Amino acid sequence: MYITSEPLVRDIARTAQNVVQGLERQICFDEYIAMPSFGANIILRFRYTGTAPVNLALLNAMETKMRKAAGARYLVNLDGAAYKACGLIYDRLPATLKAIHARADCPIPHCRFHADGLENDWQRICRLFQLPSNTPLWEIQANGNRLLALALSAHDGAPVRESICTDGKQIQCLFLKDDGSHTGMMKALCLAYRQNVSICQVLMEYQAQSS
What we know:
Layout: H1 6-22, E1 27-35, E2 41-48, H2 56-70, E3 75-78, H3 80-85, H4 93-103, H5 115-128, E4 137-143, E5 146-153, E6 161-166, E7 169-177, H6 181-195, H7 199-209
Parallel strand pairs: 2-3, 5-7
Antiparallel strand pairs: 1-2, 1-4, 4-5, 6-7
Helix pairs in contact: 1-2, 4-6, 4-7, 6-7
């Protein structure tokens, strides 16, 4: 699997180290997530470990610096705890994301660096779980020797598929309702990059509009 290949993992580690150093160690690397069906992007996620109080101005400045340090190969963001501390209401997040999907005109960024590798992973997972080859994969999460594939379904309550071992990895497929919120999240990320603000800033603006 490309998502767990040694060259990719090494490159992610180097990039994450650059980002942490660029932020003067106010953050630490948390995880990486692949999004095969949403622009072949890989997102590096970080936790805020600084001592300054969290506010939107701080998050805007930090995520802008993080993007410059990461370069073009990866998307980056801070984790949900920082956003929640800044006032994002997670109970209202699905409605906020659907509003972004409906209102925002922003194409999802495409990453050419990971396109071939993630396309192969996507199709391999579809074959393993006997899914149509065009089944959208929202995320592939790598956790040690375990992989979790989050597939989008048109139906509520789609069953979880049993784990399958491949290349020494266990893979589980979980189905999520395809309600537009996932595209909304990617549009929020795109808007944040375009406007040089944090993703939290975009989410909170639409949260206020949809209240």
